[in-house]
Amino acid sequence: MENKNIIQQYLNGLQTHLSEDDKKALSYAYGAMDSQIARLKDQYPECPDSLLQLLMQINGTYGQHYGDQDIFVLIFGAEVDLTEYPYYLRSVEQILEGSDFNKSIRETYGEHFESMPGLVEPGIDPDVDMDRWLCFSYCVNNGGTSMLYLDFNPLPGGTRGQVVRYLHDPDSFKVIAGSFDEYLQMVMDKDYSFLLSGY
Fold it and tell me: N- to C-terminal Cα distance for the chain?
């Protein structure tokens, strides 16, 4: 069952952990327009209400334009080798653009796919075109090192709407939460520790 208040809980907790500079930057942010949300829902009908609610309050923190302000504020995290790595929220426009991947994982890696046994975690379908995944977050390295996706087309053993983390070098696709709400709760339970990473 979805927690209807999880976005406000998440943002309230985030505010207590952000630096003063990031709080100021985030204060310029505002939500996506109804027409933008409608386009997102049209392209991704299974987009969770919680992500829509977040975007209706903050339409991205990754170089997003708000009036004469461009903001870069890291608001997400995920465990990488026992350290925390920070991520931005992509705007509706950026989400609709897709990500660096638009073919299936198997097609993307081609002849190397079979020789990379740790590439794809069970429950992830390597034959689904990745433009059917919703890429909601780029890491601090402009997404070149890691991205976060919502996967609505899992294999048996996976969960519709599961959060998949792509990590580069060595490349891997791993399920880190069963849903967007579960992911937010995980970050809150870790007390927003990604903000201690020094970025």
Answer: 34
User: Rounded to two decimals, what is the model's pTM?
Assistant: 0.93
Q: In what order do the strands lie in the sheet with 162-167?
A: 76-80, 83-89, 134-139, 146-151, 162-167, 172-177
β-partners of residue 89 are 137
Half-sphere CA count of 32, side-chain side, radius 13 A: 25
Strand-pairing partners, residue 135, are 149
Strand partners, 189: none
Domains observed in the chain: 6-196 (3.40.1580)
Question: Look-up: residue for tokens 């208040």?
Answer: 5
> For the segment 113-172, what is each residue's pLDDT rounded down to a tens digit?
999 989 999 999 999 999 999 999 999 887 678 999 999 999 999 999 999 999 988 899
